[in-house]
Design a protein that fits this description.
The protein contains eight helices and 24 strands. By secondary structure, the chain is an alpha+beta fold. Strand 18 and strand 19 form a beta hairpin.
Protein backbone atom coordinates (compact mmCIF):
# COMPACT_ATOMS: atom_id res chain seq x y z
CA UNK A 1 0.00 0.00 0.00
CA UNK A 2 2.87 2.37 0.86
CA UNK A 3 4.50 1.50 -2.47
CA UNK A 4 1.33 2.40 -4.37
CA UNK A 5 1.04 5.71 -2.53
CA UNK A 6 4.67 6.58 -3.31
CA UNK A 7 4.06 5.75 -6.95
CA UNK A 8 1.01 8.00 -7.11
CA UNK A 9 2.96 10.83 -5.48
CA UNK A 10 5.79 10.46 -8.02
CA UNK A 11 3.28 10.44 -10.88
CA UNK A 12 1.52 13.60 -9.65
CA UNK A 13 4.83 15.36 -9.03
CA UNK A 14 6.17 14.51 -12.50
CA UNK A 15 2.87 15.53 -14.13
CA UNK A 16 2.93 18.87 -12.31
CA UNK A 17 6.54 19.53 -13.38
CA UNK A 18 5.67 18.67 -16.98
CA UNK A 19 2.72 21.07 -16.92
CA UNK A 20 4.90 23.84 -15.54
CA UNK A 21 7.51 23.22 -18.22
CA UNK A 22 4.85 23.33 -20.93
CA UNK A 23 3.47 26.57 -19.51
CA UNK A 24 6.90 28.14 -19.41
CA UNK A 25 7.31 27.45 -23.12
CA UNK A 26 4.11 29.30 -24.08
CA UNK A 27 4.15 32.87 -25.32
CA UNK A 28 2.99 35.71 -23.09
CA UNK A 29 -0.01 36.13 -25.38
CA UNK A 30 -1.03 32.50 -24.95
CA UNK A 31 -0.91 32.94 -21.18
CA UNK A 32 -3.28 35.92 -21.37
CA UNK A 33 -0.71 38.56 -20.54
CA UNK A 34 -0.96 40.65 -23.71
CA UNK A 35 -4.22 39.36 -25.20
CA UNK A 36 -7.29 39.59 -22.97
CA UNK A 37 -9.76 38.51 -25.66
CA UNK A 38 -12.43 36.01 -24.70
CA UNK A 39 -11.90 32.46 -26.03
CA UNK A 40 -12.88 32.30 -29.71
CA UNK A 41 -12.99 36.08 -30.19
CA UNK A 42 -10.78 37.98 -32.57
CA UNK A 43 -7.66 39.29 -30.78
CA UNK A 44 -8.17 42.56 -28.87
CA UNK A 45 -11.89 42.80 -29.73
CA UNK A 46 -13.59 41.53 -26.59
CA UNK A 47 -12.01 41.52 -23.15
CA UNK A 48 -12.65 38.46 -21.03
CA UNK A 49 -15.29 39.11 -18.37
CA UNK A 50 -16.90 41.99 -20.28
CA UNK A 51 -20.43 41.96 -21.81
CA UNK A 52 -20.87 41.07 -25.47
CA UNK A 53 -20.19 44.01 -27.77
CA UNK A 54 -23.80 44.51 -28.90
CA UNK A 55 -25.50 43.57 -25.63
CA UNK A 56 -27.90 46.19 -24.27
CA UNK A 57 -26.58 47.29 -20.86
CA UNK A 58 -28.89 46.87 -17.88
CA UNK A 59 -28.38 49.67 -15.40
CA UNK A 60 -29.40 50.54 -11.86
CA UNK A 61 -31.47 53.68 -11.47
CA UNK A 62 -30.37 55.97 -8.65
CA UNK A 63 -31.85 58.50 -6.24
CA UNK A 64 -30.02 60.69 -3.75
CA UNK A 65 -31.10 62.68 -0.69
CA UNK A 66 -29.19 64.22 2.22
CA UNK A 67 -29.25 60.95 4.18
CA UNK A 68 -29.56 58.27 1.48
CA UNK A 69 -27.90 57.25 -1.76
CA UNK A 70 -29.86 54.44 -3.37
CA UNK A 71 -29.26 52.32 -6.46
CA UNK A 72 -32.15 50.10 -7.55
CA UNK A 73 -32.07 46.62 -9.08
CA UNK A 74 -33.68 46.50 -12.58
CA UNK A 75 -36.13 43.71 -11.75
CA UNK A 76 -38.08 43.91 -15.02
CA UNK A 77 -35.00 42.69 -16.90
CA UNK A 78 -34.27 39.76 -14.56
CA UNK A 79 -34.62 36.05 -15.33
CA UNK A 80 -34.10 33.41 -12.65
CA UNK A 81 -33.33 34.43 -9.08
CA UNK A 82 -29.66 35.50 -8.93
CA UNK A 83 -28.90 39.22 -9.19
CA UNK A 84 -25.56 40.04 -10.87
CA UNK A 85 -23.26 41.72 -8.36
CA UNK A 86 -23.02 44.75 -10.63
CA UNK A 87 -26.82 45.19 -10.48
CA UNK A 88 -27.30 44.55 -6.76
CA UNK A 89 -29.16 47.35 -5.03
CA UNK A 90 -27.14 49.72 -2.89
CA UNK A 91 -28.27 51.79 0.06
CA UNK A 92 -25.73 54.04 1.77
CA UNK A 93 -26.05 56.66 4.49
CA UNK A 94 -22.57 58.12 4.12
CA UNK A 95 -19.50 58.06 1.91
CA UNK A 96 -18.31 54.57 0.96
CA UNK A 97 -15.18 53.62 2.91
CA UNK A 98 -12.10 52.51 0.99
CA UNK A 99 -10.62 49.71 3.11
CA UNK A 100 -7.35 47.89 2.43
CA UNK A 101 -8.06 44.16 2.97
CA UNK A 102 -4.42 43.58 4.00
CA UNK A 103 -4.92 45.94 6.95
CA UNK A 104 -8.56 45.09 7.68
CA UNK A 105 -9.82 43.42 10.83
CA UNK A 106 -12.91 43.50 13.02
CA UNK A 107 -13.25 42.72 16.69
CA UNK A 108 -15.70 40.69 18.77
CA UNK A 109 -15.87 41.86 22.38
CA UNK A 110 -18.26 42.48 25.23
CA UNK A 111 -19.74 39.51 27.11
CA UNK A 112 -17.15 37.04 25.84
CA UNK A 113 -14.36 35.01 27.44
CA UNK A 114 -11.70 35.96 24.87
CA UNK A 115 -12.08 39.24 22.93
CA UNK A 116 -10.51 38.68 19.52
CA UNK A 117 -9.74 40.55 16.31
CA UNK A 118 -10.22 38.72 13.00
CA UNK A 119 -8.30 39.61 9.84
CA UNK A 120 -9.18 38.50 6.31
CA UNK A 121 -6.52 35.78 6.59
CA UNK A 122 -8.22 34.56 9.77
CA UNK A 123 -11.62 34.43 8.06
CA UNK A 124 -10.30 32.55 5.05
CA UNK A 125 -8.67 29.80 7.12
CA UNK A 126 -11.86 29.11 9.09
CA UNK A 127 -14.72 26.84 7.91
CA UNK A 128 -16.75 28.55 5.18
CA UNK A 129 -20.30 28.21 3.89
CA UNK A 130 -22.34 29.63 1.02
CA UNK A 131 -26.01 30.49 0.98
CA UNK A 132 -28.38 31.80 -1.68
CA UNK A 133 -30.61 34.36 0.02
CA UNK A 134 -32.40 37.63 -0.65
CA UNK A 135 -31.46 40.96 0.84
CA UNK A 136 -34.19 43.60 1.09
CA UNK A 137 -34.20 47.10 2.55
CA UNK A 138 -36.94 47.51 5.17
CA UNK A 139 -38.33 50.48 3.22
CA UNK A 140 -38.70 48.52 -0.03
CA UNK A 141 -42.20 48.59 -1.60
CA UNK A 142 -43.48 51.00 1.08
CA UNK A 143 -46.11 53.65 0.27
CA UNK A 144 -43.60 56.43 -0.45
CA UNK A 145 -42.13 54.28 -3.26
CA UNK A 146 -45.41 54.67 -5.13
CA UNK A 147 -45.48 58.48 -5.08
CA UNK A 148 -45.39 60.03 -8.56
CA UNK A 149 -45.48 63.63 -7.35
CA UNK A 150 -43.40 65.75 -5.00
CA UNK A 151 -39.74 66.64 -4.55
CA UNK A 152 -38.46 63.06 -4.31
CA UNK A 153 -40.89 61.46 -6.74
CA UNK A 154 -39.52 58.78 -9.09
CA UNK A 155 -41.00 56.99 -12.11
CA UNK A 156 -43.40 54.39 -10.72
CA UNK A 157 -41.92 51.20 -12.17
CA UNK A 158 -41.13 47.86 -10.54
CA UNK A 159 -37.49 48.99 -10.30
CA UNK A 160 -38.45 51.91 -8.04
CA UNK A 161 -41.31 50.29 -6.13
CA UNK A 162 -39.60 46.94 -5.45
CA UNK A 163 -35.97 47.35 -6.55
CA UNK A 164 -34.29 47.84 -3.16
CA UNK A 165 -33.84 44.08 -2.98
CA UNK A 166 -31.64 41.49 -4.63
CA UNK A 167 -30.79 37.80 -4.29
CA UNK A 168 -27.22 36.52 -4.29
CA UNK A 169 -25.07 33.59 -3.28
CA UNK A 170 -23.21 34.79 -0.20
CA UNK A 171 -20.04 33.14 1.03
CA UNK A 172 -18.20 33.49 4.30
CA UNK A 173 -17.76 32.17 7.83
CA UNK A 174 -20.77 31.20 9.98
CA UNK A 175 -21.08 33.72 12.79
CA UNK A 176 -21.60 30.81 15.19
CA UNK A 177 -18.03 29.65 14.45
CA UNK A 178 -16.61 33.06 15.37
CA UNK A 179 -18.76 33.32 18.49
CA UNK A 180 -17.51 29.93 19.66
CA UNK A 181 -13.95 31.15 19.15
CA UNK A 182 -14.49 34.06 21.55
CA UNK A 183 -16.60 32.11 24.05
CA UNK A 184 -19.95 33.84 24.57
CA UNK A 185 -20.93 34.22 28.22
CA UNK A 186 -24.18 32.66 29.42
CA UNK A 187 -25.85 36.01 30.23
CA UNK A 188 -25.41 37.29 26.64
CA UNK A 189 -28.53 37.69 24.49
CA UNK A 190 -27.82 40.33 21.81
CA UNK A 191 -25.20 41.23 19.21
CA UNK A 192 -24.58 44.89 18.34
CA UNK A 193 -22.98 45.23 14.90
CA UNK A 194 -21.13 48.40 13.89
CA UNK A 195 -19.93 49.32 10.40
CA UNK A 196 -16.75 51.04 9.33
CA UNK A 197 -18.46 53.78 7.31
CA UNK A 198 -18.50 57.44 8.27
CA UNK A 199 -21.79 57.16 10.14
CA UNK A 200 -20.69 54.07 12.13
CA UNK A 201 -23.96 52.46 11.10
CA UNK A 202 -25.11 50.16 13.93
CA UNK A 203 -27.84 47.54 14.35
CA UNK A 204 -28.79 44.90 16.93
CA UNK A 205 -29.45 41.23 16.24
CA UNK A 206 -30.77 38.67 18.75
CA UNK A 207 -28.06 36.20 19.77
CA UNK A 208 -30.35 33.28 18.91
CA UNK A 209 -30.43 34.45 15.28
CA UNK A 210 -26.68 35.15 15.27
CA UNK A 211 -25.98 31.58 16.37
CA UNK A 212 -28.46 30.13 13.88
CA UNK A 213 -27.74 31.13 10.27
CA UNK A 214 -25.88 34.46 10.19
CA UNK A 215 -22.45 34.77 8.61
CA UNK A 216 -19.60 37.19 8.15
CA UNK A 217 -19.62 37.31 4.35
CA UNK A 218 -16.69 38.20 2.13
CA UNK A 219 -17.90 36.68 -1.16
CA UNK A 220 -20.84 37.61 -3.39
CA UNK A 221 -21.71 35.32 -6.31
CA UNK A 222 -18.27 33.75 -6.08
CA UNK A 223 -16.24 36.96 -6.16
CA UNK A 224 -15.07 39.39 -3.45
CA UNK A 225 -17.73 41.80 -2.21
CA UNK A 226 -18.08 45.00 -4.20
CA UNK A 227 -17.07 48.14 -2.32
CA UNK A 228 -20.67 49.31 -2.08
CA UNK A 229 -21.68 45.90 -0.68
CA UNK A 230 -19.32 46.06 2.29
CA UNK A 231 -15.87 45.03 1.06
CA UNK A 232 -13.85 43.44 2.60
CA UNK A 233 -16.47 41.82 4.90
CA UNK A 234 -19.99 42.37 6.12
CA UNK A 235 -22.51 40.81 8.45
CA UNK A 236 -25.22 38.85 6.62
CA UNK A 237 -28.52 38.11 8.39
CA UNK A 238 -30.82 35.95 6.19
CA UNK A 239 -34.54 36.72 6.18
CA UNK A 240 -34.25 39.91 8.24
CA UNK A 241 -34.45 43.43 6.84
CA UNK A 242 -31.18 44.25 5.06
CA UNK A 243 -30.46 46.96 7.63
CA UNK A 244 -29.35 44.20 10.02
CA UNK A 245 -26.68 43.05 7.55
CA UNK A 246 -24.16 45.72 8.52
CA UNK A 247 -21.57 46.48 5.82
CA UNK A 248 -17.81 47.14 6.26
CA UNK A 249 -18.03 45.26 9.54
CA UNK A 250 -15.92 46.98 12.22
CA UNK A 251 -16.98 45.28 15.41
CA UNK A 252 -19.50 42.98 17.07
CA UNK A 253 -20.30 43.75 20.70
CA UNK A 254 -22.00 40.98 22.68
CA UNK A 255 -24.47 42.34 25.25
CA UNK A 256 -27.28 41.23 27.57
CA UNK A 257 -29.77 43.75 26.16
CA UNK A 258 -30.42 45.55 22.86
CA UNK A 259 -28.76 48.91 22.34
CA UNK A 260 -30.99 51.80 21.27
CA UNK A 261 -28.91 52.69 18.23
CA UNK A 262 -30.07 55.73 16.27
CA UNK A 263 -30.45 53.79 13.04
CA UNK A 264 -32.66 51.11 14.56
CA UNK A 265 -34.73 52.84 17.25
CA UNK A 266 -35.08 56.35 15.77
CA UNK A 267 -34.29 56.48 12.07
CA UNK A 268 -36.22 53.29 11.26
CA UNK A 269 -39.02 53.62 13.76
CA UNK A 270 -42.51 54.40 12.41
CA UNK A 271 -45.59 55.05 14.52
CA UNK A 272 -48.44 52.57 14.08
CA UNK A 273 -52.12 53.08 14.84
CA UNK A 274 -52.44 49.50 16.04
CA UNK A 275 -49.72 50.23 18.62
CA UNK A 276 -51.50 53.30 20.00
CA UNK A 277 -49.47 55.58 17.69
CA UNK A 278 -46.27 54.32 19.29
CA UNK A 279 -43.32 53.09 17.29
CA UNK A 280 -42.03 49.55 17.13
CA UNK A 281 -38.28 49.81 17.58
CA UNK A 282 -37.29 46.28 16.65
CA UNK A 283 -38.64 44.70 13.49
CA UNK A 284 -36.93 41.64 12.08
CA UNK A 285 -38.36 39.14 9.60
CA UNK A 286 -39.69 40.00 6.15
CA UNK A 287 -43.22 38.56 5.73
CA UNK A 288 -44.23 36.74 2.50
CA UNK A 289 -44.15 38.90 -0.61
CA UNK A 290 -44.33 38.64 -4.37
CA UNK A 291 -44.40 40.91 -7.40
CA UNK A 292 -44.96 40.46 -11.11
CA UNK A 293 -41.79 41.81 -12.70
CA UNK A 294 -42.95 41.43 -16.29
CA UNK A 295 -45.32 42.76 -17.55
CA UNK A 296 -45.11 45.62 -15.05
CA UNK A 297 -45.49 49.40 -14.83
CA UNK A 298 -43.50 51.33 -17.39
CA UNK A 299 -43.61 48.52 -19.96
CA UNK A 300 -46.16 48.13 -22.74
CA UNK A 301 -47.91 45.21 -24.43
CA UNK A 302 -47.66 45.71 -28.18
CA UNK A 303 -50.74 43.71 -29.19
CA UNK A 304 -53.26 41.17 -27.87
CA UNK A 305 -51.97 37.62 -27.68
CA UNK A 306 -49.82 35.33 -25.56
CA UNK A 307 -47.59 36.73 -22.81
CA UNK A 308 -45.72 34.97 -20.06
CA UNK A 309 -46.38 36.57 -16.69
CA UNK A 310 -43.29 36.18 -14.54
CA UNK A 311 -42.15 37.48 -11.19
CA UNK A 312 -40.49 36.84 -7.86
CA UNK A 313 -41.79 35.57 -4.52
CA UNK A 314 -39.97 35.33 -1.19
CA UNK A 315 -40.41 35.12 2.56
CA UNK A 316 -38.08 35.76 5.48
CA UNK A 317 -39.79 32.96 7.38
CA UNK A 318 -38.80 30.17 5.00
CA UNK A 319 -39.68 28.72 1.59
CA UNK A 320 -42.36 29.84 -0.84
CA UNK A 321 -45.09 27.20 -0.92
CA UNK A 322 -47.18 28.62 -3.77
CA UNK A 323 -47.91 31.74 -5.78
CA UNK A 324 -51.35 32.58 -7.13
CA UNK A 325 -51.89 34.96 -10.04
CA UNK A 326 -55.00 36.98 -10.89
CA UNK A 327 -55.54 38.52 -14.34
CA UNK A 328 -58.95 40.02 -13.53
CA UNK A 329 -58.21 42.37 -10.65
CA UNK A 330 -58.49 39.76 -7.89
CA UNK A 331 -61.86 38.29 -8.88
CA UNK A 332 -60.29 34.91 -9.48
CA UNK A 333 -56.90 33.31 -8.80
CA UNK A 334 -54.94 30.49 -10.42
CA UNK A 335 -51.74 28.86 -9.22
CA UNK A 336 -48.54 29.80 -11.03
CA UNK A 337 -45.63 27.47 -11.83
CA UNK A 338 -42.62 27.71 -9.50
CA UNK A 339 -39.13 27.34 -10.94
CA UNK A 340 -36.43 25.39 -9.18
CA UNK A 341 -34.59 26.03 -6.98
CA UNK A 342 -37.07 26.79 -4.22
CA UNK A 343 -34.90 27.76 -1.28
CA UNK A 344 -35.62 29.17 2.19
CA UNK A 345 -35.25 32.94 2.52
CA UNK A 346 -34.41 33.26 -1.19
CA UNK A 347 -36.19 34.59 -4.23
CA UNK A 348 -38.36 32.06 -6.06
CA UNK A 349 -39.17 32.62 -9.73
CA UNK A 350 -42.79 32.01 -10.80
CA UNK A 351 -44.34 31.88 -14.29
CA UNK A 352 -47.91 31.98 -15.56
CA UNK A 353 -49.15 31.49 -19.13
CA UNK A 354 -51.61 34.20 -20.19
CA UNK A 355 -53.36 35.35 -23.35
CA UNK A 356 -54.34 39.01 -23.27
CA UNK A 357 -57.59 39.76 -25.08
CA UNK A 358 -56.83 43.44 -25.56
CA UNK A 359 -59.23 44.63 -22.86
CA UNK A 360 -58.37 46.70 -19.79
CA UNK A 361 -57.50 44.55 -16.80
CA UNK A 362 -55.42 44.35 -13.62
CA UNK A 363 -52.84 41.63 -12.94
CA UNK A 364 -51.36 40.74 -9.54
CA UNK A 365 -49.68 37.94 -7.59
CA UNK A 366 -50.06 36.53 -4.08
CA UNK A 367 -47.46 34.53 -2.13
CA UNK A 368 -48.05 31.83 0.48
CA UNK A 369 -45.02 30.58 2.42
CA UNK A 370 -44.36 27.26 4.12
CA UNK A 371 -45.50 28.70 7.46
CA UNK A 372 -48.98 29.20 6.01
CA UNK A 373 -48.61 33.00 5.97
CA UNK A 374 -50.40 34.65 3.03
CA UNK A 375 -49.47 37.96 1.42
CA UNK A 376 -52.28 40.45 2.21
CA UNK A 377 -54.14 42.90 0.01
CA UNK A 378 -53.73 46.60 0.74
CA UNK A 379 -57.12 46.63 2.50
CA UNK A 380 -56.13 43.65 4.67
CA UNK A 381 -52.78 45.20 5.56
CA UNK A 382 -54.45 48.50 6.50
CA UNK A 383 -56.95 46.64 8.65
CA UNK A 384 -54.20 44.61 10.36
CA UNK A 385 -52.21 47.74 11.12
CA UNK A 386 -55.21 49.84 12.18
CA UNK A 387 -54.86 52.21 9.23
CA UNK A 388 -57.97 54.01 8.02
CA UNK A 389 -59.09 55.28 4.63
CA UNK A 390 -57.10 58.50 5.04
CA UNK A 391 -53.92 56.49 5.65
CA UNK A 392 -54.61 54.39 2.58
CA UNK A 393 -54.67 57.50 0.44
CA UNK A 394 -51.37 58.79 1.83
CA UNK A 395 -48.76 57.12 -0.38
CA UNK A 396 -45.84 59.04 1.16
CA UNK A 397 -46.45 57.92 4.76
CA UNK A 398 -43.46 56.34 6.53
CA UNK A 399 -44.04 52.59 6.69
CA UNK A 400 -41.62 49.66 6.92
CA UNK A 401 -41.89 45.94 6.13
CA UNK A 402 -44.69 46.67 3.67
CA UNK A 403 -45.89 43.52 1.87
CA UNK A 404 -49.21 44.40 0.25
CA UNK A 405 -50.18 42.68 -3.01
CA UNK A 406 -49.00 44.78 -5.99
CA UNK A 407 -51.58 45.39 -8.77
CA UNK A 408 -50.54 46.50 -12.29
CA UNK A 409 -53.22 47.97 -14.55
CA UNK A 410 -53.05 47.18 -18.26
CA UNK A 411 -54.93 49.69 -20.44
CA UNK A 412 -56.46 48.94 -23.84
CA UNK A 413 -53.45 50.51 -25.56
CA UNK A 414 -51.16 48.09 -23.70
CA UNK A 415 -49.64 50.67 -21.34
CA UNK A 416 -49.09 49.47 -17.76
CA UNK A 417 -49.37 51.55 -14.58
CA UNK A 418 -49.20 51.12 -10.81
CA UNK A 419 -52.68 51.21 -9.22
CA UNK A 420 -51.89 50.20 -5.63
CA UNK A 421 -53.20 53.50 -4.28
CA UNK A 422 -55.73 54.20 -7.03
Amino acid sequence: MDSNRSGRRRFLKNAALAALAAGAGQSASAQGVTDTSAPGAQPNTHAHGQPARLAAPAGRAMTKTITHTTYYTPLADSVGIITPASLHFMQSHSRLPDIDPEKYSFIIHGLVERPLAFSMDDLKRLPSVSKIAFLECLGNTGPRRHASEGKNATPVTVQFTHGIMSCNEWGGVPLSVLLKEVGVKKEASWVVAEGGDGSKYSYCVPLTKAMDDCMVAYLQNGEPLRQEQGFPARLFVPGFGANHSVKWLRRLMITDEPYMTWDQSVHHAASRVDLGNKSRWFNFVWPPKSVITRPSAGLKLNAPGYYEITGLAWSGWGKVRKVDVSVDGGKSWKEAKLQDPILPMAHTRFNFDWTWNGEETVIMSRCTDDQGEVQPTLAELNRNWGRGEKDRLEPISNTHYWNAIQPWKIAKDGSITDVLFA
